[in-house]
Amino acid sequence: MEPLYLTIIVIVTTIVLIILTYPKNSSSNHTNLPPGSFGWPILGETLEFLFGKPDKFVEKRMKKYSSHVFKTRILGENVAVFCGPIGNKFIFSNEQKLVTAWRPHSLQKLMRSYQQSDQNTATPTPTLKPTQNVTTVIRTPGFFKPEALARFLGVMDMTTKQQLKTHWEGKSKVQVYPLSKIFTLALASRFFLGIEDYDCVTKLVQEFDDVSLGLHCIPLNFPGTIFNRARKGAAAIRKQIISIIKEKKAAALLSGKPGRDILSYMIASTDSSGKFMPETELADKVMGLLTAGYSTVASALTFVMKFVGERPDIYNKILAEQMEIANSKKPDDTLNWDDIQKMKYSWNVACEAMRFFPPLQGTFREAITDISFEGYTIPKGWKIYWTVSSTNKNPEYFPNPEKFDPTRYEEGSAQVPFTYVPFGGGPRLCPGKEYARLAILTFLHNIVMKFKWEIILLNEKMIGDMIPTPAQGLPVLLKPHSELELVTFSTANKSRSYVKC
After folding, report:
1. Rounded to an integer, what distance in angstroms lies between the CA atom of residue 302 and that of residue 295?
2. For 13-49, what is each residue's pLDDT tens digit?
3. What is the distance between the alpha carbons of residues 174 and 163, in angstroms, rounded to a whole number?
4. Strands 383-387 and 77-82: what pairing?
5. CA distance 469 to 294
6. Can you tell me the distance from the alpha carbon of 330 to that of 339, in angstroms, rounded to the nearest whole number?
7. Phi, psi torsion values for 113, nearest 5 degrees
8. Range 115-152 burial, b when 16+ CB lie within 10 A, else e
9. Where are the beta strands (DSSP E) in 152-306?
10. Considering the entire predicted model, what is its pTM?
C-alpha cells in the first residue's frame, strides 16, 4: 500500500502548491470580458480541452457563446479564444503590436531545461536576446528559403527512397502513421542536424512521441503522468543531441570549418557579447526543431495516405501527374524544384487533407496590452488561443464541408481570406511551410510510383489532442505496381491548371 499512499501524498501536495501559487489576474478589474466560463477552480476547463479534443471544445463554445471570441481557463491561464476569419486576421495583423508568442507551462519546462539547471541561482539569462528565438536564428541565414530547400531536395528524395526500401518494400501490410514518423524524423535529422546516420535519432521515436504529447498537458511530475513520461523522453533526446553536438564540434575543429547544416550554424553562432550558446541550450532548441519538424508533417502525410487510399479516382489523378514527371527524367535523376512546382493536383489533395485534419490545431499568444476586440476587452497578460478549427468545417467558407474535394484549391476558386490557414499567417507564418510541402510531395511522388494501397479500417477512430492521429496507426494493404501497370498510364494525360494553397 506504500506506493498508493505515496502517490496520494504527491497528488495532494501538488494541488496545495497549485492553490498557493494560483496566479492572481486582472480580470476582476474588467467587467466587459468576452462571454464564456472559467470552469472548475484551478483546473478550469483544461480536462475537456485536452481530452475532449480542442476542435470540439472550440466548436461547442462558439455555438454557445460567440462565433468570434469567448473566454475560458485552460492550462492554468485565463484565455480568450479567437475564432473565425476575423479572429485569425486580428491575430496575424497584430503580432508584436498587441500580442506576442506564448508557450504553455509544460512546453516551457520541457524545452527550456537550460533555464532550470541550477535551482540555487537566479534563472540564467538565455544566450539569445529576449526578442530572438530559435525561429529567428534559423531564418537569418535563410535555411528555409526556396534556394536552400532546392539544394536539399535531392537529399530528401534519396532519403525517401531509402526509407521506402527499408520499411515498405516487401511487405503486404503496414501501419502508415508509425512509418511516417520514422520517415519525417529521418528527414528532420538530415535537414536540421546534417547527419547521414540518422538511426541514432529515429530509434528515439517513442521518446519524441512522449515529448509531443507532453507539450500541452498538466505539468504534474510524478510516475505515470503524461508530463513525467515527457520529461524522461526529453532527457533521452537531449542526451543524444548533446552527443551529436560534441561530434560536430570535434569535426569542425579537425577540419577547420563548420558544417553547413542548421545545427552547425547554431553551434558557431554567438550573442552580442561574443558568447557561444551552451550545449544544453542548443540541445533544447534543436529538440524543439526536431519535434516540430517530424510530428506535424507525419500527421499530414498519414491523412493524405488515408484519403488517397479511400478514393481511387484521386489516386489515379495523382499517379498520372507523377508519371508525367517521372517520364521526363532519367532513371537515376532525383526530384528538383521544377518537378515540385508541377505537382499541383497532388498538393491540392494534401491541402484538402489538412483542412479535414489540421496537423496542428492551434497555438497560443499573450496580450501585451489591454485589447479591444468585437466589443469586448481582453486584459493585458491574458493568453489568446488561435485555432484553425473555427473555419475549416464551416459551410459558409467551405460548401459541403464533409466532402473531400481537392478542386476547392483550383485556380480561380477564390477562398475567403483567413479561412484556410493550416500554417498560420502574418509575421509568425510557419517558417517550415515550404519544407513541409516538399516533404509531403516528395513522399507522395515516390509512394504512388511504387504502390497502390487499400485502407483496412475505413472508420478508424481518430485520437490526439493538438495533433490528430489514427488510433490504430492507419493499417493499409500494399499492392506493388508491375511494369505493365505503369505503362498503362499514358504520359499524354493533360494536366489541369491548379493553384497551390
Report:
1. 11
2. 555 445 434 444 445 466 799 999 999 988 999 999 9
3. 13
4. parallel
5. 13
6. 13
7. -65, -25
8. beeeeeeeeeebbbeeeebbbebbeeeebbeeeebeeb
9. 173-175
10. 0.88
